[in-house]
Every structure is written in structure tokens, then in C-alpha cells.
Amino acid sequence: MTAIALTIAGSDSGGGAGIQADLKTFAACGVYGACVITALTAQNTQGVSAVYDVPAGFVEAQIDAVFSDLAIDAVKIGMLFRPATVEAVAAGAARHRARTVVLDPVTMASSGDSLLNGDVADVLRRTLIPRVLLVTPNLPEAAALTGASLARNEREMEAQAREILSLGARYVLIKGGHGAGAESVDLLIGQGEVVRLAAKRTETRNTHGSGCTLSSAIAAGLAKGRDIVTACQEAKAYVTAAIAHADELDIGHGPGPLHHFYKQWSTS
């Protein structure tokens, strides 16, 4: 059987994040990718100039079209611009009994532009987080979901992750990419011990789409039958390498994307 992953997220017209990064990641990780577009952004490496919200009813129609035909093994959820969109996605996931769901609670673009409208964080907490296998917040997103200040160390990261875990998700991967230090440390927290995922930081500004890519790589691993720890470990390694190769690309005038196809292009 062909492993299939579905991304439910916004479109990045610059190609570095969102749906575009997700589909690139699925392809690079050997998984067939399908998509449901929740919003369109006018975006490039220098920022987001406009966002067009896809009506919630059309988001539901896309979900129904995909699930009615494709055997979806895993779902990645990214940018959800309005509360109505969150509710539509939660309802669609429940209707189609989606079990292996990775939620990347996107609050802003890498440029710092906000990608939320309305009280999306509250609706995420109430309707979607209780339904998912894994939530993958970075430090600002974890702070937004918990109402806390930005975590300053691993102890505070763990505390915020456990608060998100209490909302009903089975696992939380809190990402330390926005932190300081020689290592970028993520913490995977679930029913057992804390799994620490660390990697050496790469000095580059070209990290646009790294959060989207990590959550999609995890979904790809889960779609292929990996357990949650292995999927997160392999995804962390993939993203770390893609960032390390990012400067091989020359894309735009601002912070560029990581190199999703560093393996494939090196042999072409």
C-alpha cells in the first residue's frame, strides 16, 4: 500500500512554508501528499502582505473529497486563520475518524507576521487539541496556548508542554528553535518519560518553513508506520540537515527556505 499523508494548511505563494513546504516534505520523505487549503497568503521571503481566508464550508468540502477517496494514513494540520475554520477542520477530522493527526499550531510566519484572526487559540484548545495525536508548538506558540511568558529553559518548556497535554492531546513536542544556546532542543512529552531531541544549531537566516517542515516530516513518518518517538527523531534529523543545506539555495531577498530536497538534488 502507498503511504498517504494529508496536509490541511495555508498556501505560501513564495513556496517556502505552508502547503508548499508540506508537499515538498512528503515527497522528500517518500510519502504521497494530498492537501486541503485553508487560506491563501500573498507572501515571499520578506513577509506576508495579504491573507485570503478560504470559507469554512469549502474547507469541509475539500476534506470530504479527499477522505472519501484516499486512504489517509496521517494528517498534518497547519495554518487555521479563523475560529470557523478550526471548527470545520475539527468536525471533518471527527467525521472521517482521523486518528493519526499532527497539529502545528501556527500563530505567525517566520517573518513575524501574524497568521491568526479572531480567538483561534481558544477554539484550538477547546475543539481540536483534544482530538490530535501530537501538537508541535514552538516557544511563542506554546506561550500563546498556555497564556504564559516565553519559556526560558527546558524546565519551563516541559511545564508548558504538560499544560497543553492536559487539554487532551496524547503527545506534545515543544520546539526550542527560538531559544538560545549551541543546541536546538525539542522535548517530546507524552505518557512516559520526556524524550529530549537535540541538534547543533546552524548559523543561517534561511529557516523559513522549518516548523511546517518538521510537523510534515513527523506526519510522513507516522504514515509509513513509524512509532511516535522514531517519527519525531527522524523528522528532527531531516529538518536539521535541510537547514544545514539551506545556504546552497539562493531564493529571494529575505530569509529563505530550508533545502527540502538536499538529498535528491545532490545526486542529480
**Which stretches are low in confidence, meaning pLDDT under 50 for 5 or more residues running?**
none
CATH architectural designation:
3-Layer(aba) Sandwich
Question: Please, what is the CATH homologous superfamily?
Answer: Ribokinase
Number of helices: 9
What would you call the structural class? alpha/beta
List keywords for this structure.
9-stranded mixed beta sheet; 268 residues; alpha/beta; UDP-N-acetylmuramoyl-L-alanine:D-glutamate ligase; single chain
Structure description:
Helix content is 38%, strand content 21%. The model has no long low-confidence stretch (mean pLDDT 92). The chain is α/β, with parallel strands linked by helices and 268 residues long. Helix 1 crosses helix 7 (210-223) and helix 2 runs parallel beside helix 3. The chain has a single domain (4-261), classed as 3-Layer(aba) Sandwich (UDP-N-acetylmuramoyl-L-alanine:D-glutamate ligase). The chain starts with a strand and ends with a helix. A nine-stranded mixed β-sheet has the order 3-2-1-4-5-6-7-8-9, sandwiched between helices.
In brief, what are we looking at here?
Helix content is 38%, strand content 21%. By secondary structure, it is of the alpha/beta class. The protein has a single domain (4-261), classed as Ribokinase (UDP-N-acetylmuramoyl-L-alanine:D-glutamate ligase, 3-Layer(aba) Sandwich), CATH 3.40.1190.
